[in-house]
Structures are given as structure tokens and as C-alpha cells.
Amino acid sequence: PAAGLFSSPGMADIRELIEVDDVMEDESLRFGPNGGLVFCMEYFANNFNWLEESLGHVEDDYVLFDCPGQIELYTHLPVMKQLVEQLQQWEFRVCGVFLVDSQFMVESFKFISGILAALSAMISLEIPQINIMTKMDLLSKKAKKEIEKYLDPDMYSMIEDSTNILKSKMFKKLTKSICGLIDDYGMVRFLPFDRSDEESINIVLQHIDFTIQYGEDLEFKEPKACGEDKSSPLVDEYFQDHVDE
């Protein structure tokens, strides 16, 4: 994340504008890694003209912004929101893609933490957001079977799982309140992403394309979406192919 904001060879590399290492080495600033990153992002927000010049003419282009992973940039600071608003002023159709490591999400406590981070980013940025559970190819068969319930989560089940572990009444009550908050919003579900599975990659790309209506002048295609019921064709298709191998 500290290496660069953009992943688009030949288009834009934020290190041409400012580098975290340079900020950290500045004796007058004395920032650590996190403080240096925040300084760089705020400096970037004050120099959007550099980004505009770097992007140039991008009509019908598909531009990927590889953003830093520090959650503070999406929850505590207005920098990413400012970037989104600037892109929209330039008539970009913007979709956020929130990546969560599937190996981190196999326990209910960790899942609740991850889903809160995703929800916080969705509320802060106020743009369509696709939430993706990455590195599915690295999970064991048992872990894949366990993680299926987290793709379209039932927060009341999360409460039951957590209650069995927690002994403190205070933390039980807090966990119940957090799960209830997430359920009230009802905004977060995840798509599985397996880089070794072309179909998994296509499904994620279709959802992103549909969200920003990319190529709307072409033949209209709806993404392979979940139905209204809890059983998802997307989830069923993926896990039938991979769990029982």
C-alpha cells in the first residue's frame, strides 16, 4: 500500500508526486509509516491537478485505482471521499471494491471485524461497493465449507457462535449490539474470489461492470447474481466445484 496509489502502468504512479519513504526520512516531519501515509494522501488530495494531467483523456477506458489498505483512510479521514468526489466531477463512474482475506475470515469474531470495516467504508465513501473474499484458492476443503456461511451472512447466527465463546456478559451484549447494527443495515455480502478459477474471476468482473454500467452501449448483461432467497446460485456453483473436489 505504501508503494503506490495506482496500479496502471504508463498512466499514473503516485510515487512521481510523493513517496512515503521520503516523508518518513524528513527530519522536520518525523512521521512513522502510518503518519507518513496520511501525510502523503493529504498532500495528494491537495494536488488532484497532477492526477488529472496523469490520467489524460480516458473516455471509455477502464481505470483501476490500487488504494492503500489502511482502514483509517476510509473511516477517520476525508481523503478517499475527496478522491471519489473529484473523480465523479470528472464524470467517472466509480465503484469501490473492498478486499478481505478469506484466511482472516474463518472465525466469527474476525468476520465481524471484517464486515464492520467493509460497512464503514461503504457508508463513508457513499458509492456502490463490491465486497470480495480473496484467496479462496488457499483455503483447505474444510475451511471452504466453513466460510460458505460468511458470504451471505446471517448475523443472528454470528451472535449465537460468539455467545458460546464469550463469558463476559458485557462483551456478549456488545457483540449482540454490533451484529444487530450490521443486520439493520443489511448492506454487506461477499463474493468469493479464486484467482485459479476463471469463472470466479468473471463473476466478480461482471458484478463490477454491472455496477458502473461499463460498456453500456454493448449488449446488456446482468451479473450472475443471488436470488431473493438465502441460497445463492453463485455460492452454490462455486462450492459445488471446489469443496467436493
How would you sum up this structure in a few lines?
Helix content is 51%, strand content 6%.
The major pleated sheet works out as: 3 strands, parallel
Shape estimate: globular
Give the name of the CATH architecture of the domain at 93-214.
3-Layer(aba) Sandwich
Number of helices: 11
CATH topology of the domain at 93-214: Rossmann fold
User: What is the N-to-C order of secondary-structure elements (H for helix, E for strand)?
Assistant: HHHHHEHEHHHEHH
Distance between the termini: 35 Å
Q: Portion of residues in helices?
A: 40-55%
CATH class of the domain at 93-214: Alpha Beta
- Approximately what portion of the residues adopt beta-strand conformation? 5-15%
Low-confidence stretches: 1-8, 226-231
Strands side by side in the biggest sheet:
1-2-3
Rg, rounded, reads 20 Å
Structural class by sheet pairing and helices? mainly alpha
Q: Which superfamily, in CATH terms, is the homologous superfamily of the domain at 93-214?
A: P-loop containing nucleotide triphosphate hydrolases
Average pLDDT reading: 81
* Oligomer description: single chain
Say how many strands there are: 3
